[in-house]
Prior knowledge:
single chain, 3 helices
Amino acid sequence: MHSKDPAFIATAEAKGLKGSELKNDNDIMVLTNPEIANLPDWVIALVAAGALAFLQKVLVQSLC
């Protein structure tokens, strides 16, 4: 936990949270980089469309 507040830590542990629940995934970074870089909306749309196409391909392969 990043917090030093004992009440917060106790509440978080009571709810089953341990440490930092935030995870940096490579896929998330690829999807957010165009927006962070203030690229045009059409670039962001192309990145999102590519991610959706890849996801569809993976799902179809896993079902076959």
